Amino acid sequence: MTTPKPASSPRQVLLEVRHLKKYFPIYKGLMRKVVNQVRAVDDVSFFVRQGETLGLVGESGCGKTTASRCILRALTPTSGEILFREADGTVTDLAKLDRRGLARFRPQMQMIFQDPFASLNPRMTIFDIVSEPLYVHGMRSRAERTEKVAELLRLVGLRPEYMQRYPHAFSGGQRQRIGIARALALRPRLVVADEPVSALDVSVQAQVLNLMLELQEALSLTYLFVAHDLSVVKHISDRVCVMYVGKIVETAPTLELFAAPRHPYTAALLAAVPVPDPQRRTAIQELPGEVASPANPPSGCYFHPRCQFAVERCRQESPQLEEIAPDHFVSCHRAAELSLPGAVSHV
Amino acid sequence: MHPPAFPLLSVQDLKAYFYMDEGVVKAVDGVSFDVYPGQVVGIVGESGCGKSVTMKAILQILEPGGKIVSGKVQLRVRRAGRPDLDTGGPNSAEELLDLTRLHPNSKLMRKIRGAEIALIPQEPMAAFSPVHTVGSQIMEAILLHNKVSKAEARQRAIDAFRAVGISMPEQRIDAYSWELSGGLRQRAIIAMALSCNPRLLIADEPTTAIDVTTQAQILRLLRDLQREKDTAIIFITHDLGVIAQMAHYVVVMYLGRVMEQGPVNEIFANPRHPYTQALLKSIPSVQSTPRVRLPTISGSIPHPFNRPKGCPFHPRCTQFIRGVCDSAAPELLAVGKDHLASCFLYQSQEVTA
After folding, report:
1. What ipTM was assigned to the predicted interfaces of this complex?
2. In what order do the strands lie in the sheet with B249-254?
3. Could you say which of A168, A317, B55, B232 has the lowest number of CB atoms within 10 Å?
């Protein structure tokens, strides 16, 4: 299988993932014999360009979080390459590096977490939380750190006077801003955000999404945005990757993916989102069946048992990710012949 | 849809407060709405708005410290053919019962829960006991409310499973909750809720914990059941998309008070309260243009202990009137047919008109 090659673009590729696999063994019995494997991430390839946002969507258990953790090397991938381009242009495969080798890359990749209540230590002040990465990476002067933390808090829209308070004094939205300030402390080049707004109230979600867009402009950040909420992903992403049972089924520029999906699963996902318009109360489109188990996936295309377009070939043969238009990759045997409905635009 | 003349449930100026060491939390502070037979009433709001507490107050299952302070919850109760619900009053097919006057542990209240009003809780994993089969738990509910044999109860449980679209119900009935997938578990909960033929179903965020394709299946199921059986549903959610697809009538809550309520088309096409307007604008949609700034509501939801004086939304409101909105709470007044809003913008008009 060929990996998706970026179409010619002025922007350089910051991160390229090739054939990434992460299997978790299932042990059984006294001897802890490996009886099976959960193929959480099963041969995933994609790339992220400098300064863009790549959205990674899928339902629970599709491997989106595992894939993002492998990229950050919080997990060691089973196989595959994670090619990261540094500021000077050298490209390194993070999958091959050990703890020591990774140290140099840690400040360049940071994470924004899902739950702003669990991701901040309640016993640390905001100053401690935001300055910790600075200290770890060599900023030993407290005065210098205080100045830097004040700057970071202002950047995310918090008052620097709050620095000495503890997380409990802040609301969910404010805590998420603190988490963002911490992630940005080391001026990372890649920010992985795993469901950063799904724990927030609707009225606060918009604030955090706007902040992320503003920061991206101001600091030319690159985001890998992992989420299950399609409307949120559409709002923030330049391109979107759709995952299903450990595999990427479709990758495309955002507007193209939402207007003209080419994979039946993408179309089904779009159809399942309830539209906030009572005048357009369509018969809710129903995708039959359940998400397949990554420990025991079906033969051929993993989506075939739920796919209304499945033919014999889909049951036998696993489809490959193929480029059908510039930057548009689909893994479906029938991608060329199907015409699928997208999310209809308002205007 | 033409609503019948009499509501099935009528909540009138309900107030439920929590008395804590730190002070009083006015979790529900004057909520009124009607639910007609076969109607879906959506209650929308963000965390801390009191939507779940309202439901718990209706069912009288408030957590310790919580108390219904005032208000009425009037429910039409069937008597014909339901000796279990006989209140001992004059004989007629139905009677009006104020649930707030019943003791939470009284026999009658316990019979209303499950038989007349059933609840679909948010977290299907927590709703079932992991050490009993789902079937035995559904049979327990059936046996509690009906004079039937065990074999008959089991058959009814199997029928209920089939009605909610669970395949192989005879086998699945003997499964434990943790053996079922999220979607199946939520279906089993719905089967349990429907097993005693309630006329009112309270669904508290029934699809929040599940994936979008499963959510579509569950919404479809609820909508079909509501149409077939003419069950009334109170649908609690923070998801405006779900509300738009499911509800006939919408109640928008914020910090324990109703901001606005009205028919679903009115609420979405012609929202009158600044909170509703802002909420509708701030949600990203799969149909909107990507990567543009969303209009936001400034600030965050205040802690329930520091509820702002006057209109609870005034510190975040763009149309805040100094000296008015921060001094007194506005009343919920008509702004259209069946459409009410609690905002001073419309109350001055009322006065001048």
Report:
1. 0.82
2. B117-120, B200-204, B232-237, B40-44, B249-254, B257-263, B339-341, B333-336
3. A168
